[in-house]
Amino acid sequence: LAVAAEPYPVKVNVQVIQELDDRRSRENPISYEAVRLKEHIALANNDMPVAIERFEAANKLKPMKPDVILILFQVLDMSKRPEDAEKLGRQMIATNKDFGPIYDLLYIMYIKQNRIDDAEKILIQKSESNPKNAQFQLQLAGHYLGAKRRPQMEEILKKMLANTKDYPEAYMMVGDLFYRIREWDRSSQIFTEGMKQFPKDKAIYQK
Predict the structure, then answer these.
(1) What CA–CA distances, in Å, run from 173 to 1, 7, 91, 204?
(2) In the predicted model, what is the mean pLDDT of residues 52-70?
(3) What's the confidence (pLDDT) of residue 204?
(4) Alpha-carbon torsion 42, 72, 83, 145, what sign?
(5) Those residues with Cβ within 8 angstroms of residue 80's Cβ, 6 or more apart along the chain or in another chain
(6) Dihedral pair phi/psi, residue 81, rounded to 5°
(7) What are the two backbone dihedrals, phi and then psi, of residue 183, each rounded to the nearest 5 degrees?
(8) With the CA atoms of 198, 201, 206 and 207 taken in that order, what torsion angle do they form, in degrees rounded to the nearest 10?
(9) Per-residue pLDDT at 153
(10) CA 139 to CA 104: how far, in whole Å?
(11) SS3 label, residue 165
(12) CA 36: distance to chain centroid?
């Protein structure tokens, strides 16, 4: 999820982008498209201050576009401006509560900063803001597993298994979780129960 702290990772023909940028700038130097091209030129040149300036300009023209915010967040963080990145991420969540990747960037930031309570809170906010998204619930359960807080993990998984209306793949997802952490008996038990609950999906559970 994080952008590597290295020169622009995507191989681009800077000359071609520059020529296109020159044409766009002549047509309309303050257009959204012209500003976006300048972002990528700055990133390709590893010029983070200019990249931030261009991304912020794009955000003013068309506020809270997910593709702009994700990169701007990471560039701010890489540029040792984590407070600004965090503020931007919070603004994005206020605008778009179901956009999962921004929660994930904040979570990673908090973990890197050893802000474990804030990391937990952002995943709780993510799951509560998207109560029918099974993957978000499972992510919070995985956090508790890593934090050695087994009761909290079990409570989330129990709620998922009890609500197959909202989480129709709950048995598959939970069984897979236990399989991945090598709790074979528990995984088998859940898969078997899933086959009983959803006999038409028996072939899927047996894979």
Answers:
(1) 22, 38, 31, 12
(2) 93
(3) 82
(4) negative
(5) none
(6) -125, 55
(7) -95, 80
(8) -140
(9) 98
(10) 10
(11) coil
(12) 22
Amino acid present at 80: K
Residue type, 102: I
Token duo for residue 29? 């130097």
- CB hemisphere CA count around 72 (13 angstroms): 28
Q: Please give the C-alpha separations between residue 3 and each of 7, 92, 161, 165, in angstroms, as whole numbers.
A: 10, 18, 36, 37
Q: Does residue 131 or residue 31 have the better pLDDT? A: 131
- Determine the pLDDT at residue 20: 45
pLDDT by residue (tens digit) across 82-114?
999 999 999 999 999 999 999 999 999 999 999
Percent of the chain with pLDDT over 90: 71
CA distances 145 to 171, 195, 206, Å, are 18, 26, 26
- Condensed to tens digits (0 to 9), the pLDDT of residues 134-146 reads 999 999 999 999 9
Residue 114, class by beta-carbon neighbours within 10 Å (0-12 exposed, 13-18 middle, 19+ buried)? exposed
Q: Tell me how far apart the alpha carbons of residues 119 and 63 are, in angstroms, rounded to a whole number.
A: 26
Higher pLDDT pick, 9 / 80: 80
